[in-house]
Amino acid sequence: VGWLARKAMFERHCTELVHQICATDAATRCDKIWAILDCPTVIQIAKSVAERLNKPLSVLVWDAPELLVNSLNMDRWSASNMLNRFGKTIQYAESVGVICEQMQAAYMKQFGPKPYVILRLGVRRDMWHSTAPLANSDRFFIGFAGSITAQRPFRQLIRMLDQTNWRIHDKDVTLRLIGSRYTLDARGPQRIEYFGWRSLSETVHLLAECDMLYLPQPFEANLRPLAELSFPTKLTTYVAAGRPVLLHAPSYASITPFLNNYPLGLACNSLESDSLRRCVEQLDRLPNQTVAAAIAAARHAEFNDTVFVERFNQLIGTTIKASRPSSTLTEQVEQDA
Questions:
Q1: Of 40, 90, 46, nearest to 65 (Cα)?
Q2: What whole-number distance in Å separates Cα of residue 302 and Cα of residue 312?
Q3: Are 299 and 185 in contact (CB under 8 A)?
Q4: Which residue of 125, 126, 214, 273 is surrounded by the most CB atoms within 10 Å?
């Protein structure tokens, strides 16, 4: 039924979208088509728009498309159709923006050689917070921002805190959540601050007040493409906040080698409560100068607006005009993503 609905309605809808887009003044005057392949509709129409306008196509992939299959509960025929269309679009594109080194290597092997530009979000320097140690306190704050694409490890964090009565190193633990929606299951007393959706600057400021920032990645076998090929964009925000990061992810996750190159904190590769607790305790005692040096290096080499715009220019093969400030472009792409 889902496949028939796609054939009867979705593909016809996409055909009409292509017609509408190509009829606009912007389409007739453009030099290139740039598409972010983050939903089935864009995956379906990007190549058709470029072909109809006879313009070169550059695409950007934030997450492996298999994530869409899982999150949208797509039937196997519709999923196969979308993944096939995704592959043809990548092959047709003149250049491809990818989120991490693992995706770059995988797509080059699967779809053939072409410019694969690693493009990660950057935060303006005026939003960077100090990496100096926080003032001593009898409370220990764990920060988390964004959506939870890894439910299982996040639930395990809550379970571990419940088992320790929300105390680490004789300090009361408070979990600070910043995002649009969370589902929590309380089986006992908990200390959770929920700030809802906040702007980027507010989010960075709230995270900068935390002792540790939690970064989970999925352990489930069906979500392995997400862990292997995607890269958590919230890490950009975490690095801007200047706090140590606890990565809770399987060893094959794409962010694991990144954390080896930039030791921003510690990695826990287990879902066992004892292992997670030990990692939290070790991270609390990690030398601050080690984390501070890694944050500074990551900011300089990866997570700033200058690097973002330079790589975006590589992707589209041109130079952004001065009238379009890099900070504005960074924020616009983050909103689009």
A1: 40
A2: 13
A3: no
A4: 214
Q: Which two tokens stand for residue 116?
A: 């694969």
State the Cα–Cα distance between residues 2 and 240, nearest whole angstrom: 43
Question: Is the separation of the CB atoms in 295 and 182 below 8 Å?
Answer: no
CB count within 10 Å of CB 277 equals 17
Query: Which SS3 state, helix, strand or coil, does residue 323 take?
Result: coil
DSSP H helical ranges for 7-150? 11-22, 25-29, 40-53, 66-71, 76-92, 101-111
Q: What is the mean pLDDT of each run of 10 residues along the chain (337 residues)?
A: 79 93 93 94 96 96 87 86 95 95 94 93 90 86 91 94 93 94 85 94 96 94 86 92 95 92 94 94 88 95 92 83 46 47
How much is the pTM? 0.85
- Type of residue at 251: S
Beta strands, E only, 229-324: 245-248, 265-268
In a 3-state reduction of DSSP, which class is residue 62? coil
Q: Amino acid letter at 243?
A: R
Record the tokens describing residue 82, joined without a space: 């979308």
